[in-house]
Amino acid sequence: MRNVDKKVEVAIGDRASSNNNFNDILGATLNPYYFKTDLLLYGETGTGKDTLAKRIHDASERSGAFVALNCAAIPEALAESQLFGVMNGAYTGAHCTRHGYIEASDGGTLYLDEIDSMPLGLQAKLLRILEMRGIERLGSTLFIPVDLRVIASTQRPLDELVELGLFRRDLFFRLNMVTIRLPALRKQREQILPLFDQFTQATAAELNRPVPALGNHYVQLLLSHSWPGNIRELKSAAKRFVLGFPLLGAEGGDVRNPVEDSGLKSQLRVVERLLIEDALKRHNHRFDAVLRELDIPRRTLYHRMKELDI
After folding, report:
1. Per-residue model confidence (pLDDT) at position 61
2. Name one Pfam family in it (predicted).
3. Which of 179, 198, 273, 304 has a CA that sits 20 to 30 A from residue 103's CA?
4. Does residue 248 contact residue 254 with C-beta atoms inside 8 Å?
């Protein structure tokens, strides 16, 4: 049996959000086998998991549909009928036979978004389906084979949920054949300005409006913001910018036509501050680790922190 890496680190960046050919984007990173197997996507909200799942489906050339299901949005009482389908008369109110999400994805891809929110009881039934590759509709004992590939996504590390007893260990191992991690935008700040330019250009073309000039003040705002909403939040900021609204919304504190602190020196200070703050945060203010990462003397770090008011 062919060996497959347990985890694959993929920096999607601006390219996964553009209209470039997705096979070209990931061809050097993903083995073509990954387009045929079940996948687990891990990343914070807004990092592009939905977009990536759809593009992997398109690249896999599966003939069936891409069927997306948000596991957090379906009431637990209705989850089984939604997933597995139901036969006429299976319960009060079931007046007709209908397919569920799993059967509808026959020949295609079933995308389980926010699988970390799936109830434990339903996880056991999903595991059986993944192993048997078939379903039994509610009210029936007839086994229906299903040709599907599953892509699941999660915002929380499933291995940690397993240890907390919130996710089944056997289902985790079944889904964890290949894991693709999508990085947070704050961890790839070099992508912020190219992405923002791409989104403003697209929004301006869609709304038939000119693209406003991006001055140094806004560059500093973009680079200094933490972007908890990641690419989704950046898209919204680009749309507000084109429409003439505050870049970061009502609470962003930015105003139009500010008196700009222009010049390369001021922008370098912003970048330097961000690098130091990020290193301090990631290493929990353990200075020895920060010094090793930044490769600077302790005295220099203290001096720069004082100069930059960190």
Report:
1. 79
2. Sigma54_activat
3. 179
4. yes
Give residue 197's Cα distance to chain centre.
21
Q: Is 113 helix (H, G, I), strand (E, B) or coil?
A: strand
> Which of 42, 17, 56 has the alpha carbon at shortest distance from 180?
42
Q: What is the pLDDT at residue 238?
A: 92
Give a three-class secondary structure readout of 130-197: HHHCEECCECCCCCEECCCEEEEEECCCHHHHHHCCCCCHHHHHHHCCCEEECCCHHHCHHHHHHHHH
For 160, phi then psi, to 5°, come to -70, -40
pLDDT reported for residue 201: 92
pLDDT at residue number 99: 77
User: Residue 180 and residue 39: Cα distance in Å, rounded?
Assistant: 8
Of 173, 171, 53, give the one whose Cα is nearest residue 119.
171
- Residue 112 has what pLDDT? 92
* Residue 186 CA, distance from chain mean position: 13
* Per-10-residue mean pLDDT, the chain, length 310: 44 41 46 75 90 86 88 78 73 68 87 91 86 80 85 92 93 87 85 90 91 83 87 92 81 47 66 80 86 88 85
Q: What are phi and psi of 89, to 5 degrees?
A: 85, 5
Q: Please answer whether residues 255 and 306 qualify as being in contact, where contact means their C-beta atoms are separated by less than 8 angstroms.
A: no
Q: Do 85 and 103 contact (CB within 8 A), yes or no? A: yes
pTM above 0.85, yes or no: no
Supply the pLDDT for residue 92.
60
Report CA Rg, the chain.
Answer: 24
Whole-number Å distance between alpha carbons of 242 and 207? 9
